[in-house]
Write a structure and sequence with these properties.
Number of strands: 6
Bound molecules: 1,6-di-O-phosphono-beta-D-glucopyranose, magnesium ion
GO molecular function, one term: beta-phosphoglucomutase activity
Radius of gyration: 17 Å
Pfam families: Hydrolase
Keywords: Carbohydrate metabolism, Isomerase, Magnesium, Metal-binding
Number of helices: 9
Order of helices and strands: EHHHHHEHEHEHEEH
Organism: Rahnella perminowiae
Strand order of the largest sheet: 3-2-1-4-5-6
Oligomer: single chain
Structural class: alpha/beta
Helix content: 40-55%
InterPro entries: B-phosphoglucomutase_hydrolase (IPR010976), Beta-PGM (IPR010972), Beta-PGM-like (IPR051600), HAD-SF_hydro_IA (IPR006439)
Amino acid sequence: LPRAVIFDLDGVVVDTAHLHFMAWQRLAQRIGIHIDTGFNEQLKGVSRQGSLLRILASGGKTGSFTQAECDAMAAEKNADYVGLLAGLTTTDILPGMGELLHTLHEQGVLTGLASVSQNAPRVLRALGLEQAFNYVADTRRITHSKPHPEIFLNVCEALNISPQHAVGIEDAQAGIDALRAGGIFAIGIGATLEGANYRLASTEGLSWAVIRQQWLRHH
Ligand code: B16
Ligand code: MG
């Protein structure tokens, strides 16, 4: 059986994608770029700077701003996003995820968090989950973003287990690709993900029993 379960944050433990989108949309609008919710799918799991570059590209504005202007825009979006996070409470934990974390601890299965969000500690605090993980990846120490496996391998190392003994849960294609590249059993949340070992439409059906069953089916 797996010895650790590694969670992505946004889209797996909590849904803040709509808040990221609101903040990006306001920023984009100010510089004359229109983005819609379909485009937002492409921003999931992508870092702050990476997201800004994709938005500029979508509006044909690649190279239109200096690095200082880009930094200012990213900071503006983040201030807006942090303001929106103020409304976040324990009721925003996605269905089943509080129970799953609880069961894993009971079963002695280690838990890790592999989020690229620099706001992850703040989000965990708002959800009352700051003590819920055995290890939370420190984004400042990660140099390659997903789909590179670095963040997941970093969590495995910190938990002192090999990737073959871990399960990862992701809602972004870049995240699934990162898990596969790292040799970690990948569970995908979302209908359109490719390459996951097992896929569910939402977190609702995800439990330790399901993880165990899928693990045994593949091992
Ligand atoms: P921040 P995850 C990701 O979180 C989000 O999916 C993505 O939309 C966001 O741009 C990224 O974090 C960076 O967030 O601006 O707060 O550092 O899915 O890796 O938990
Ligand atoms: Mg995510």
